[in-house]
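seq as requested:
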Amino acid sequence: LVNGSSSGNLAAIFSAFGEGDEVLIERNCHKSIYNGLILRKLRVKYIEPVIDDENGVFLPPDKEKIYNALKECSKPKGIILTYPNYFGITYNIENIILDLKTKGLKVIIDCAHGAHYGINSRLPKAVSSIGDYVVLSAHKTLPALTQGAYLLVNEENVNLEFYLRAFTTTSPSY
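struct tokens:
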């Protein structure tokens, strides 16, 4: 991706969901996620935030908060998570993702700040292979020019190429 994670988030949202679908999201997700929700006209169920009052920061959602939000949905089509969060905090997400996928939910993971995960055993484990769509911002944590990013896709979707072209540069030199 040459437009950073924002274009990847938009392409993933438009590829995974149809207009009017119900999705779960964290309240403190990236602006591009909110833009995608609005443009795709999705119905949103929020995962209630976990806040560290002592430090004044959002923590990743816990399993209980995710499943409580899921219970409030009528016909959920998917979930969009941020891993790690914008403070670099990770959590045990793998089993949650795998379980949600068995329930038929599409999983988009905004890993903008975790592109380097999995490169070394001392770093947190990468979730690149378990989400349906995983967006990585190379320009944040890896050597990359300008807004270099990746969209990793673990499902067949015939519409993806169209949405990638719609949300990325149309420059002939690209």
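The radius of gyration is 16 Å.
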